[in-house]
């Protein structure tokens, strides 16, 4: 942000501009005014620069991480690689089990995309799970350690204030954010204000030193559609807007996290309020999950909300896997969540008229109509799935050149029939042109013919 405000275009800004198909000056301007962030810790040289903002391609984050129930370092690295393979623009390590530091280090060193964390999780582990023993000094120590490893952005639950906690008592699902519940418990145990809020200027100093982007967590986001857009959620959002201004004043890049569980009719209001209260800071939303009745399919119910909220202006979507609310996702769940969310993000980009998104749809449509099966597979979001579905019934190499698929067969393929109609029309048009040509020659091939008296 300091460079951007000083009218200096860095090599990272140039790289991002090339990826997004815009000018370097446009990238610099969006970072300078706080409407976009370029998360890139100085200690994470493996990452490729990317940008998050409403005027750029919609990004997708994948959450991974171990738990106290299941912890395996290699599995988390594998999940990260799966997420990146299927299009994750960033990955968050939300580990709460054993080997948190080693797991995070392995993920960072193998990751070509920015890595995010929630430092309060590790802080809690260091005090043996005793929330009351948490302190600003411990949190700062964890934040610095993670920054030295190369974490690019950190979720900070600094907007959950003591007066907001009673507002959640009448909710159906109370406080569902893990970080939010930790900070609420600490505040009530000490009957003091959230120490992350009280030390937010100090927090910004650490972030600025390592060029870490702050992601302001929604600690009291709704955990059910019944609680969406309530007083607790909006009160915290107002405080997050205040913290956005403090972060920017300290040359710290900042984005704002959003819900959560929101029915379709309340999605637009969330985007409008965040833009208004947080001065256009990039909005980073979990879903939202649009209905609560489909455990096991929340990657679908939330992808519906994700496509809608991204069309309205959300900058980055946090994916949801089929295991949401049920268990710790594995690599297959990561793949399912990523494909659902890349579809949502792409659909929003198409709706907003982004040239890159439109171009890919056009090229795939042309390959489909021209029966270029290999091109169609390779342009698909998941080429392996597309190819395997086709080959289930038509595996022979010759089928890759056939002008039909197993759904329609050779006689009922609409596109094949369309090709035939076009050919017949061309023949008919050619015949009529030949007729007019013969008429022209029969009249002496004269351009101008005297009118008859």
Automatic annotation (TrEMBL):
Any Pfam family matching the protein: ThiC_Rad_SAM
Keyword Metal-binding carried by entry: yes
Keywords: 4Fe-4S, Iron, Iron-sulfur, Lyase, Metal-binding, S-adenosyl-L-methionine, Thiamine biosynthesis, Zinc
Entry's Gene Ontology cellular component terms: cytosol
Catalysed reactions listed for this entry: 5-amino-1-(5-phospho-beta-D-ribosyl)imidazole + S-adenosyl-L-methionine = 4-amino-2-methyl-5-(phosphooxymethyl)pyrimidine + CO + 5'-deoxyadenosine + formate + L-methionine + 3 H(+)
GO BP of this protein: thiamine biosynthetic process; thiamine diphosphate biosynthetic process
Enzyme Commission (EC) number: 4.1.99.17
InterPro entries: ThiC, ThiC/Bza_core_dom, ThiC/BzaA/B
CC cofactor: [4Fe-4S] cluster
HAMAP family (UniProt xref): ThiC
Protein name: Phosphomethylpyrimidine synthase
Source organism (scientific name): Ferrithrix thermotolerans DSM 19514
Gene name of this polypeptide: thiC
């Amino acid at each position: 942000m300091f460079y951007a405000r000083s009218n200096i275009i860095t090599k990272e800004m140039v790289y991002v501009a090339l990826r997004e198909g815009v000018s370097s000056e446009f990238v610099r301007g969006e970072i300078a005014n706080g409407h976009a962030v370029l998360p890139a810790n100085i200690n994470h040289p493996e990452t490729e620069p990317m940008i998050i903002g409403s005027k750029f391609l919609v990004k997708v984050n994948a959450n991974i991480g171990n738990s106290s129930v299941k912890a395996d370092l290699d599995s988390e690295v594998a999940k990260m690689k799966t997420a990146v393979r299927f299009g994750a623009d960033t990955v968050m390590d939300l580990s709460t089990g054993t080997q948190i530091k080693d797991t995070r280090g392995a993920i960072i060193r193998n990751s070509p995309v920015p890595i995010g964390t929630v430092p309060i999780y590790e802080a809690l582990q260091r005090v043996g799970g005793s929330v009351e023993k948490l302190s600003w000094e411990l949190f700062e120590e964890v934040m610095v350690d993670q920054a030295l490893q190369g974490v690019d952005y950190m979720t900070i639950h600094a907007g959950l204030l003591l007066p907001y906690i009673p507002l959640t008592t009448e909710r159906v699902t109370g406080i569902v954010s893990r970080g939010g519940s930790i900070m609420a418990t600490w505040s009530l145990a000490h009957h003091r204000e959230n120490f992350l809020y009280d030390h937010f200027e100090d927090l910004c100093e650490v972030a600025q030193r390592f060029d870490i982007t702050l992601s302001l967590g929604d600690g009291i986001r709704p955990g059910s559609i019944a609680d969406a857009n309530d007083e607790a959620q909006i009160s915290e959002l107002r405080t997050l807007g205040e913290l956005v201004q403090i972060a920017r004043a300290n040359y710290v890049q900042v984005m704002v996290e959003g819900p959560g569980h929101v029915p379709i009719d309340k999605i637009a209001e969330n985007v409008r309020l965040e833009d208004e209260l947080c001065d256009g800071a990039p909005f980073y939303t979990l879903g939202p999950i649009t209905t609560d009745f489909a455990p096991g399919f929340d990657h679908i119910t939330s992808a519906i909300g994700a496509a809608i909220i991204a069309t309205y202006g959300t900058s980055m979507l946090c994916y949801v896997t089929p295991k949401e609310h049920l268990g710790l996702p594995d690599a297959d769940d990561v793949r399912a969540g990523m494909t659902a969310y890349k579809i949502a993000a792409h659909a929003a980009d198409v709706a907003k008229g982004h040239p890159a998104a439109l171009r890919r749809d056009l090229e795939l449509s042309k390959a489909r109509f021209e029966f270029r099966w290999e091109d169609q597979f390779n342009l698909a979001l998941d080429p392996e799935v597309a190819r395997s579905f086709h080959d289930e019934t038509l595996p022979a190499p010759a089928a890759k050149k056939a002008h039909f698929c197993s759904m329609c067969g050779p006689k009922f393929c609409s596109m094949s029939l369309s090709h035939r109609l076009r050919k017949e029309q061309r023949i008919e048009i050619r015949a009529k042109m030949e007729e007019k040509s013969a008429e022209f020659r029969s009249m002496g091939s004269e351009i101008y013919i005297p009118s008859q008296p």
